[in-house]
Design a protein that fits this description.
The chain crosses the membrane at residues 20-42, 48-69, 81-104, 110-133, 175-196, 217-237, 257-277, 284-303, 309-326, 346-365, 377-397. This protein is mainly alpha-helical. It has 15 helices and no strands. The chain is globular, with a radius of gyration of 20 Å.
């Protein structure tokens, strides 16, 4: 993995290398915790809907508070906010470990920790995004985002694998302790970065109505609204595979916890492939977004028809790759084609859409899985994603040309490359 390769060009920067190393450690710990929490809830309740509700608890604060976090990120220095947020996440992971080690009999304390974690993410997440954009120059930001997807996927694979191996020995509580420790690696990496090599973003002045200004910008930018609407649909009924994979493993595939772990690992491998696809492209374009979203939706609908674990797992690869490519493209275009002083609020808007999609899609897919079966949930979700992509393509075609380029700052190659 040579930094001189165009696919890995962001690694030429010292601060990004530290950020990338810390990221994979933190993501590994996070996914160890995700597996532990999901399986703990499923064990306590036997309900996929309950797993989906935990996603609601994490997502709701971002929907309600995210734009305030974005306004703070545009005004405050990012570095101290990032450190405080990491300390808060570590404390919450430690709390979850205490709950698990003392013997959880109810999901309510777990939901409480998820809700508190959502608040920390809502207020600290936009600053984290702005900080990540400052460790590379703007020209390398899309590549850094794509590499971040690869590292996140690698961390997911490692986290799921380690969780499966350690769970019989440490229990869920041990997984949560490891996750708590991982946040201190991020703090150490931030402290070791070279201040002279940051690429500062323009900041916003302290003023009343900053949240309103951010909302107004999003609502008055037609191409961004269309892209976010497509992302919302794909995120709600097309990206909540934590729920549907668990339901398929426990239900039609009769694969149990081992099957769920295997599917999660295969899905993570697919996200690595998607990250390489995004990182290898010189430009992440609107056309790439639409084509990938359409193909991924079709694959999801077909996955509901798969009769065996191995055939279902095989389709998880392209679905996961497509999901990462879509996410990376949306994030890159939304950030780079918006004003720098608005960056935190744009990141917050992306987080709100993603969180809202999770809040709606998690319980919805869980409910569909419980009532109509997980196969029907996958098929309905896939068809909805295909329809949303076609509608978005039609809307963007209507907005194409000079009007959308002036409104969004898009160059022709972003629409057609």
């Amino acid at each position: 993995m040579s930094p001189s390769s165009p696919t890995f060009r962001a690694l030429r920067h010292h601060n990004y290398r530290l950020w990338a190393g810390a990221d994979i450690v933190s993501v590994t710990g996070t996914w160890m915790q995700v597996l532990g929490v999901n399986w703990l809830i499923l064990t306590l309740t036997g309900s996929a809907t309950s797993v989906g509700l935990s996603l609601v608890m994490q997502a709701l604060p971002t929907v309600l508070l995210g734009m305030w976090g974005g306004a703070l990120a545009d005004r405050l220095p990012s570095r101290p906010v990032v450190i405080v947020a990491q300390l808060a996440h570590a404390a919450l992971a430690a709390t979850l470990a205490v709950i698990a080690l003392t013997g959880a009999e109810s999901v309510l304390p777990i939901y409480g920790v998820a809700l508190a974690g959502g608040v920390v993410t809502a207020l600290g997440g936009p600053a984290l995004g702005r900080f990540g954009a400052q460790v590379v120059p703007p020209a390398d930001l899309p590549n850094a985002m794509a590499l971040g997807s690869i590292l996140s996927s690698a961390g997911r694979i490692l986290g799921m694998s380690l969780a499966g191996a350690l769970l019989p020995f440490t229990g869920n509580g041990g997984l949560f302790v490891i996750n708590a420790a991982s946040f201190f690696v991020v703090i150490a990496a931030v402290a070791a970065m070279r201040r002279a090599e940051f690429h500062p973003l323009a900041t916003a002045e302290r003023q009343a109505g900053a949240v309103r200004d951010g909302l107004r910008y999003v609502l008055r930018t037609p191409w961004l609204l269309v892209v976010l609407a497509l992302w919302f649909v794909s995120g709600s009924v097309g990206r909540n595979f934590q729920v549907t994979m668990a339901a398929m493993s426990a239900g039609p595939l009769d694969a149990g916890a081992g099957g769920y772990g295997l599917l999660s690992t295969v899905f993570a491998v697919g996200t690595v492939l998607g990250g390489f696809v995004a990182a290898s492209r010189p430009h992440l374009t609107i056309r790439l977004l639409l084509v990938t979203a359409f193909v991924t939706g079709v694959a999801q609908a077909v996955s509901g028809l798969m009769p065996e674990l191995w055939t279902f797992a095989a389709l998880m690869l392209p679905i996961a790759a497509g999901a990462v490519t879509v996410d990376t493209t949306v994030s890159a275009r939304a950030q780079l084609d918006s004003p720098e002083p608005m960056r935190g609020r744009i990141i917050a808007a992306l987080s709100i859409v993603s969180a809202g999609a999770g809040a709606l899609g998690g319980p919805l897919l869980g409910r569909l899985s419980d009532t109509m079966g997980p196969r029907a949930a996958l098929e309905i979700g896939g068809v909805a994603c295909v329809a949303a992509t076609l509608l978005a393509a039609a809307a963007l075609a209507r907005l194409s040309g000079r009007t959308i380029r002036q409104a969004a700052g898009l160059r022709p190659r972003l629409e057609n490359a």
